[in-house]
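Trying the structure run again after the queue cleared.
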Amino acid sequence: MYQIESKGYPISENDVIEFENLITLKLPHEYRIFLLQYNVCMIFPDCFDFLENNEKSDSRIRYFLGLNVHPRKEYYYSLYWYYDLMQRRIPKNFLAIAPDPFGNAILIHLTGGSIWFWDHELEADTEAGEEVSMDNISFIANSLDEFLNSLYELKLEDD
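Done. Tokens:
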């Protein structure tokens, strides 16, 4: 089981609607409830697996993004800031909901609610004319709940 530690200010349904109006899409119901309950948060355990080029890989959730953060001190926790940063770097109908510690992002598919891993090292070079694609995006889970329930604690091996 996981534990969640909220780090953000409380938000309202109106805050979520305002964000949805900006992105012109509705958030999946499960994620909307999570966002309203926790806003910006840390989760423990925080490790997850995914397949990248048919090989098992793993990463960690740094924190979940949220709304109503301090615009100067905590902008990097903001869904608004990440949306601005990522909207031309990821396919449409995806939203970054959490970064990992290495510059990658956990995405949610806005029409289906599935969870995906975005690898910045394999990102399309749009300045060189490459199109944004699914080439650097790997499936993690069918839903947010499935993803949260699959998280595990990193176990360090003894030397």
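The mean pLDDT is 93. Worth checking whether this holds up in the mutant runs.
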